[in-house]
Write a structure and sequence with these properties.
Elements (H helix, E strand, L loop, with lengths): L5 H23 L1 H8 L6 H22 L2 H24 L5 H23 L4
């Protein structure tokens, strides 16, 4: 499971729960999500910039770590984010091809990393 001390693990688990709650709120009641998270719509471009920096650091950290299972997980998650963006924009008749490309590229990387992960024991 985890090598973290139990109190740290439980704190991280609680933080994960809060992020999941925020995701659900933003998906089902975006206005309430903005209010709960104390975000303002006019600041969202700056917030998005920070999210992209954080996502890039997570991806780079996984690549630096070198664990194919971790790389697969991280790129699958970022690909899901891009696929969801594509779905949102497609539903509203907006351009979405760049998001599909990003989702597809992330899926290819995740699948390749999974293949390496599961073949590592066979070598």
């Amino acid at each position: 499971m985890s090598t973290l001390p139990l109190p740290v693990y439980l704190l991280a688990l609680a933080m994960t729960g809060i992020v999941i709650w925020l995701a659900v709120l933003f998906l089902w009641a975006p206005g309430r999500g903005l209010t709960f998270a104390t975000h303002e719509a006019e600041n969202l471009p700056e917030v998005m910039a920070n999210r992209y920096v954080a996502m890039a650091l997570i991806m780079a950290g996984a690549l630096y770590n070198g664990n194919p299972g971790l790389i697969a997980f991280i790129f699958a998650a970022t690909g899901l984010s891009a696929a969801h963006d594509a779905w949102i924009y497609a539903r509203h008749g907006k351009p979405f091809v760049k998001h599909v490309f990003s989702a597809t590229l992330s899926a290819v990387i995740a699948l390749a990393a999974l293949i390496v992960h599961f073949n590592a024991g066979a070598a």
